[in-house]
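The data are quoted verbatim for completeness:
=====
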Amino acid sequence: MKKHIQLLVNGALWEGEVKAGQTLLDLLREEIGLTGAKKGCDSGECGACVVLLNGQPVNACLVLAVDADGEAVTTIEGLRNDERARAIQEAFVQAGAVQCGFCAPGLIMATWALLAQCPHPTEQEIKEALIGHLCRCTGYVRIPEAVRQAAARLSGRKEVTGVGERIDRPESSAD
C-alpha cells in the first residue's frame, strides 16, 4: 500500500508516493538521492541518520515517511551554505573529531540543533545532545571538545580550554 505525501526537504517541496512502512531515511537516500544521513544501525542506536524534522533532531531510521507528511526536513546537504554548519564542521576538523566521517553528518546535525537552541551549552547539555551517537574512530573526548569549539566560534570567543572551562576573549577594538 502506498500513500501520497509532501515534504519540504531542504527548503524545496518534494511529493510522491511512499510505501506504508518506508522510513524517512530510506526515502531521503533512495528516492530523493540525499545520502548525507547514513544508514548505520537502522534501529535508532547510532545517530548516523540524524536529520532535523521541523528543526528538531530525529533519527530518520525511526520516523516513517508517512508520519513526516507535511513537515519540514533538513539534511546535512541542506546546511551546505549555512554559516553555523560551516563553523561546526571546522571545529570538528580542528578538534580531530572526524576520522572516517560516517558519524559526522549526524553529529553535526545534533550539534547544529543544540547550538541553535542553546548558544552557550554546559557540559551536561552537550552530553545530552550527543546521547545516542556512536563513533568508533575518535573516542568520546574530541567530539564534545568540537562542540565547545563550535560554540566559542559562533559566539565570538577566541579560546575554549579544558572540559567545562571557558575563556571569553573579546575582540580587540582599534580605538
Summary: The chain has five helices and seven strands.
